[in-house]
Amino acid sequence: MHSNWRPDHFWIDFDGTLTAADTIAALGEYASSVSHTESAWDDAVAAYLADYAEAVKSTPVPPFPVPPILSQIDNPAVRQALAVVAAHIAAVRPAEDASLARIHRAGIFRGLSARGLTEAVQHRVELAAGALDALAAFGDRVTVCSVNWSADWIAGALSPWCGRDICCSDLAWNGEMEVSTGIQPTIVDGMDKLATMQRRGFKPNVLVVAVGDAINDLPCLRTCFF
């Protein structure tokens, strides 16, 4: 354990951590209003919820025993719970992939602009209390890593911090980068978030603290310190 506990880097979730609530629904509603696919978005949400409910029947997630101190993080109860978490994430991945394919076929995220996204989010999303103050205090020691679908949406919500280091699935753009053509699903679940963190190659002596609120944050939380 570090004697002088000063984090070198913060790996922070967006939806529900830096924001007061999940924002995917608001993003989808905005996108469908631009692409005039509101009905298709409603259908996609309903289909996803049905797929997800079916998937979790086989892999329910039990209450997670969070250890109060770092020395307990490797106890058997925590390891067992983390194995269940990994199984849950794997079980629901097909529902996530099917939803993204459904959204792509319907063209829900076509025709959006980066400027439109950064402006729209500012009156559709409420940040968590103190979120911008925390980001300002942490400065360049922050990566925002999310299963959200738009870096511009995140950047707009976090303005004026926006754009420093954001990792998420993002929109594909036409050759002139003027309008979107769909979603590029690069970070879909917690294992993708963990793989993204691992690709950063943080050195062993670098203390990285992960912050998150949901099951997709647990792989990174486990790899770092709670």
Structural summary, described in words:
The structure is a single chain. The chain has 226 residues and is of the alpha/beta class. It is 44% helix and 10% strand. The protein is built from eight helices and six strands, in the order βαααααβαβββαβα. It has helices at residues 24-35, 38-56, 76-106, 114-120, 131-138, 151-157, 190-199, 218-223; strands at residues 9-12, 142-145, 166-167, 170-173, 180-184, 208-211. The strands form two sheets. Strands 3-2-1-6 form a four-stranded parallel beta sheet, with helices on both faces. It has a two-stranded antiparallel ribbon with strand order 4-5. Strand 2 (142-145), helix 6 (151-157) and strand 3 (166-167) form a beta-alpha-beta unit. It starts with 8 loop residues before the first strand and ends with a helix.
Topology:
Layout: E1 9-12, H1 24-35, H2 38-56, H3 76-106, H4 114-120, H5 131-138, E2 142-145, H6 151-157, E3 166-167, E4 170-173, E5 180-184, H7 190-199, E6 208-211, H8 218-223
Parallel strand pairs: 1-2, 1-6, 2-3
Antiparallel strand pairs: 4-5
Helix pairs in contact: 1-2, 2-3, 4-6
